[in-house]
Write a structure and sequence with these properties.
Blueprint (H helix, E strand, L loop, with lengths): L3 E7 L6 H17 L3 E3 L4 E2 L2 H9 L8 E6 L6 H9 L4 E5 L13 H14 L5 E4 L7 H7 L19 H11 L3 E5 L13 H8 L2 E5 L1 H9 L3 H14 L8 H20 L4 E4 L4 H6 L4 H9 L4 E3 L3 H14 L4 E9 L4 E6 L15 E3 L9 E5 L3 E9 L6 E10 L8 E7 L3 H11 L4 E6 L3 H11 L3 E3 L2
Parallel strand pairs: 1-2, 1-3, 1-4, 4-5, 5-6, 7-8, 7-9, 9-10, 14-17, 16-19
Antiparallel strand pairs: 11-12, 11-18, 12-17, 13-14, 15-16, 15-18, 16-17
Helix pairs in contact: 4-14, 6-13, 6-15, 8-10, 9-10, 10-12
Length: 464
Amino acid sequence: MSLTYAVAALARPTFDVPYAQEMADSAFAALDAAGITTVGSRSLLFDSDMLEQALADIELSEVDLLLLLQVTFTDASMTVKLARNTGLKVSIWALPEPRLGGRLRLNALCGLNLAGHALGKAGKRYGWLFAAPDAPGIGARLEALADPVPCLPTSASVPAGTDHEQAGAVLSLLSESRIGVVGQHPDGFHTCAYQASELRALLGIEVDTMATDALFDRARRIDNDRVSDVKRAVGQDLTGLDALDQASLDKSLRIFCALEDVHTERRVSSLAVRCWPETFTEYGCAACGPMAMMNERKVPCACEADVYGAASALLLQEVAGEPSWMADLVDIDTEDDTAVFWHCGLAPMSMRDPQASPEATVHSNRGMPLLLQFPLKPGRATFARISQSRNDLKMIIAVGRFIRAPMAFTGTSGVATFDRPVSEVLEKIMQEGLEHHYAIVYGDHRRVLRAIAAKLDLPVLELS
C-alpha cells in the first residue's frame, strides 16, 4: 500500500543551519527511497508562522500521517498544537549527529524527548524514531511510523522501601527547603511546568519567585572588587579566561555573585533559572558557568526554570552528600551501547575527569561566556527525577556508569552505559513520555531513592 506523509522539518536558527538542511535533505531522500510520498515544504521551518504556512496548502485529509522531522532541538508548542488540531496521526523522526567533540550542532534527540513528554501530558498517541537516514532497515522503520502505538499505562509501581533511616533524614531536610525560581520556563517546555501547591504537598518544599530583570539589576549592582576576587578564584581552576570577551565575562561573574546573594538572602537551597534567551539577549552573557559554580557550592541549579528538575537535583545531592548535575540525554549509540549526557557548561567542577584540563569557554550557539568545559570522570552514577509524565507524579531511577571517553560535545558532557541496553532505556523514556532533564550524582543510590519513594507513596519507574 502506498503511503503519503505530510512532512514538516522542524529546526531552530541558533543551531548549525547548513548541516541541519543537509541532514533534512538526507531524510527526505530516505523517505523517497522507501516509496513514501511526501507533501509539504522540504525547507527547514524555524517558527510557527513558517510551519502554518507550509501546512496551509496541504490537503490533510489525503495523507496517512503528519511526520514531524525533528532536525534540531525545538520546543514542543507547535507539536502539541498540530496533534490537537489536525486530527492526523503524528510521528516524530529525530536525526542523530556524530560525537566529534565540537558543538552540539542539532540536539534533535532532546527535541524528540521534549515533544514526547508534551504529547503524553496532552493524552496524544505518537510514533517516534531516532535513527540516521542511512540506518539499516530505515525504509521499514519509516513505514511503521504510519501506525503509532497507543500511549500505554505507566509501568511504575510503589516499591518496598529500603534504607529508611537515610530516606527519612533526606525528606526532613527537603521539607525545610526553598527553591528560588528566576523567571518563567520557556514556551513549549511542558517538562518545566509546575504547581507550587503540588510540590509543597509532596516534599514540603516552598517556591520563591523573582523576575529575570530583578536578577539582572542585582548583578549590575555587584561591587567591582567582589567581581575581581571571583575572577581571580575562577582563574585558578580554569584555563582560557583571558581569551574571552572581558565585558561579557564580567557580566557572567556578576550573575554568579547575584545568584550567591539570592541563595543567602532568600535562604533558598536550590535554584531554577530561566537561563535563556534573556541572559544573552537582554543582559549579555551566559548563565551556565555561574550555575555550575553554584552547583559546586551545593546549591543545585536547574536551567530553563525547571522547578522539578531543581527539586530532583536537590534530592540527589542530599542523598549522595555531594554536588549534583542536571543534564539532557542528547545521544544514544546502539552499536557501542552508550549514551551521552550533556549541558552547555553546567556540571560542577568536582565531576570533571581528573585527566582533563578544565577550560573556560563560550556558549556554542550564542558565543558568550562563561561556560565550563570538560568531560565527566568515570564512575558509577545514579540518574533520577521526580517526573510529571502523563500528568502523574512518579520517581524515575536509572543506574549506570560514566566511562572515560573523548569529550562528545563542547561544554560539559559524559559518555555513559546503563545496567540494561541503551535502546531499552530510550524505549522506556519515549513510551512513558518522560522529561528531557535528568538529575545526576555519582554512586548507586537506588536503595535510598526507593525508600524515599515508598515514604512518599510515589510510584517508581526504573529505567535500568
